[in-house]
Known about the structure:
This protein is mainly α. The chain has 4 helices and 2 strands; from the N terminus they run H-H-H-E-E-H.
Amino acid sequence: MKKQFISQPIALLSGWLLVIPSLYFILSALLNYEFGIPGLWSSIESIFEKPGNKQLGLNINLLILFGPLVAILINLTQVMNVAFKKDVSSFNLEVELKRYSSNWMVIAAGSLCLASLFLYLLGENFNC
């Protein structure tokens, strides 16, 4: 068995730390703008709307966009093994997925974040 790049608990913790800000942003924006419940949004509203926080805003936006992507990539290395084997007459690709792993929850949460950001991008920019 090959040595992993990062241990499973570290990958899980770093994945959640990268996904949680994006999940919080999406949930609070959805509750505020679609359902009129400003409770969660009011705590982060100053970051995005006050001119004094514009330097911080760029970093937060990058974390919201690329955090889930990095979390998915880190946790995929924990649950997936890919092996390439080449013979004289054939080329074999073996993919092994671990079934019961808590890393799948981070991958699912990151995928949900990226999918909702992509759907927002489509809905906001392509009004037909």
